[in-house]
Amino acid sequence: MKTLILTLAVMITTATFAQQGQKNFIDHPYIEVTGKAEMQVQPDMIYIKVDIDEKDTKNKISLEELERKMINQLEKIGVDIKNDVKLKDISSNFKYYFLQKKDIVLSKEYQVLVKNGQTAGRVFLELEKIGISNISIEKVDHSEIEDLRNEVKINAIKAAKEKAGHLAKAINQSAGKAIFIQEQNYMLYRPAVSNAFYMKGDASSLDMEKAKVPEIEFEKIKLEYSILCRFDLM
């Protein structure tokens, strides 16, 4: 019986302290604001999809020869073949061959990573010279996207602190330490591939040796954060 009474006493005391703590927080004067920050950055990771297919040359050049020429052209541009060129897929028409008794045609899909629009333009131009024209921008990104995300988040908190200070000053008070911080909205906008870039230049010239390198300009990646903050009102 004594044990039961003691347990109840402890529970009641704990609940009382909890209620008092909650009441103190509610009664505590504070100012609540939302800070926003955004950043736009030029993508420095441009992924180019390259499809090579024997039928593009009417089977006059083997897939191996097309690959060799592609690698040579990319090396000439300055692309890191070991780290920035990946084989994504390989296919053939073996099934169609057995049904139709046509020539077997092989194809491969590569992904080429470049760091800027000028190099991307050179990839388009140089591969076009050797008969590889099935090339497209697959996606864009930034190599420091996580660091940029944190930077925008910090700027949003700083904006909230500055806003709270201005509002408090208007009533002859000041904003003190933060007592509550909550992330609200976050947006990372990577432009859709179809709208990510436009090309300027003469990549379709009949004289490919004299064609100028096309200038590819990319839409910027946009980061935006909103953070809710409460500060002591002093």
Automatic annotation (TrEMBL):
The keyword Signal applies. Gene3D superfamilies: Protein of unknown function (DUF541), domain 1, Protein of unknown function (DUF541), domain 2. Keywords: Signal. It comes from the Bacteria. InterPro entries: 26kDa_periplasmic_antigen, SIMPL/DUF541. The keyword Signal applies. GO terms for biological process: DNA damage response. Residues 1-18 form the signal peptide. PANTHER family: PERIPLASMIC IMMUNOGENIC PROTEIN (PTHR34387:SF1), SLR1258 PROTEIN (PTHR34387). This is SIMPL domain-containing protein. It comes from Plebeiibacterium marinum.
